[in-house]
């Protein structure tokens, strides 16, 4: 496994060397989803789910808290680096994001959003349906700055990444009696996969052809989930992880159907379950010292506004931690995840 990933990475490296000092491997990179990939859209929403204050961003460019739920770079930032971009797709709602800034892509993700539209509503986040509306608006702007012909090729050659689902379970299903009393986990998964399927079909109808979708992570190993659902144990919550595994199987089946149905579509599932699970359960073998606690505060529960400058106990060196706050990986962990993403994504860009 490790061998084949490094093989693919060298293949990609070879591709990259060919384009040194030239164009990125794809003309643009568009990102949709939740807090794992939000780069600041929620800064512009009346929502408590934000990360645009220290210590978020303390290891990012200029130590600036952009709204990323991380001390530094997200996995998608590393991906953009590897693709040869010199800047990251900007948060679409950022007022500076217009015209020429959109030529290399944009980021529509919003923390606490999900496939299930009510998840986003609970937190006043941007539902995926609205992210898609913003993307349509963005396409019109692209046509204005690049012309119809160039815009069409940017749209069809661009890489699209969708990363959602965790909030639907952690921030909604498991804590919401209106859902968990009436839906079995299986039925809830089917419901959100229907939204996933609709989303991919809409994106395809709008011209997207190269789409990567992340699987659910091992949600039972997120420090906050262990605290909330772990019955005082410090181990990953097995039930939550098995829910994620069954969801991921269904995600594969649904994606296979979409590929058969939608002409010209390249669709790849980026499995982040296994690499993150390995980081947590074999952290010392991977050069990490701590996986039960996040770096910020006690690391057991803090995220968003609870992780702030006044949080007591924040660690000095986040690169020793798998998790930055109680729900989101550190830059160091994201780098490992990104390498896996790139290995799996070669077929999307070649
Ligand atoms: C379209 O792309 C070509 C090739 O990159 C470029 O020369 C041309 O200026 C672009 N057209 C517009 C309207 O930007
Ligand atoms: C889903 O597909 C991906 C890529 O083909 C694979 O790596 C992963 O193991 C599959 N996951 C499940 C749960 O079948
Ligand atoms: C932080 O930890 C990493 C990994 O153990 C180590 O390589 C690095 O030197 C440390 N940085 C500081 C400033 O101590």
UniProtKB/TrEMBL annotation:
InterPro entries to which the protein is assigned, alphabetical: GDSL (IPR001087), GDSL_lipolytic_enzyme (IPR050592), SGNH_hydro_sf (IPR036514), SGNH_plant_lipase-like (IPR035669)
Pfam families named among the record's database cross-references: Lipase_GDSL (PF00657)
GO MF, one annotated term: hydrolase activity, acting on ester bonds
Keywords attached to this entry: Signal
Annotated TM spans: none
Stretch forming the signal peptide: 1-22
Keyword Signal annotated: yes
Similarity-based family: Belongs to the 'GDSL' lipolytic enzyme family.
Protein name: Zeta-carotene desaturase
Originating species: Vigna unguiculata
């Amino acid at each position: 496994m490790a061998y084949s990933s490094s093989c693919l990475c060298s293949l990609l490296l070879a591709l990259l060397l060919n384009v040194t000092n030239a164009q990125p491997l794809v003309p643009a990179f568009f990102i949709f989803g939740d807090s794992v990939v939000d780069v600041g859209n929620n800064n512009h929403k009346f929502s408590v789910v934000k990360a645009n204050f220290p210590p978020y961003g303390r290891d990012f460019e200029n130590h600036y808290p952009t709204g990323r739920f991380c001390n530094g770079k997200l996995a998608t930032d590393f991906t953009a680096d590897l693709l040869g971009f010199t800047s990251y797709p900007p948060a679409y709602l950022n007022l500076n994001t217009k015209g020429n800034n959109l030529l290399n892509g944009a980021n529509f993700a919003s923390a606490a959003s999900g496939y299930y539209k009510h998840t986003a509503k609970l937190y006043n986040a941007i539902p995926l349906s609205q992210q898609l509306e913003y993307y349509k608006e963005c396409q019109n702007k692209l046509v204005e700055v690049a012309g119809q012909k160039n815009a069409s090729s940017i749209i069809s050659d661009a890489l699209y990444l969708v990363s959602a689902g965790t909030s639907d379970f952690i921030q909604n299903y498991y804590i919401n009696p209106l859902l968990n009393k009436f839906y079995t986990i299986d039925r809830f998964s089917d419901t959100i996969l229907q939204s996933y399927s609709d989303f991919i079909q809409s994106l395809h109808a709008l011209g997207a052809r190269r789409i990567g979708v992340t699987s659910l992570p091992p949600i039972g190993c997120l420090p906050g989930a262990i605290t909330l659902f772990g019955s005082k144990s410090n181990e990953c919550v097995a039930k939550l992880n098995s829910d994620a595994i069954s969801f991921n199987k269904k995600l594969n089946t649904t994606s296979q159907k979409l590929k058969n149905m939608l002409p010209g579509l390249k669709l790849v599932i980026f499995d982040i379950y296994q690499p993150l699970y390995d980081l947590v359960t074999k952290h010392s073998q991977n050069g990490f010292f701590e996986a039960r606690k996040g770096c910020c505060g006690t690391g057991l529960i803090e995220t968003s506004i609870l992780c702030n400058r006044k949080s007591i106990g924040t660690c000095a060196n986040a690169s020793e931690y798998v998790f930055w706050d109680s729900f989101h990986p550190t830059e160091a962990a994201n780098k490992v995840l990104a390498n896996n993403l790139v290995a799996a994504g070669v077929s999307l860009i070649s």
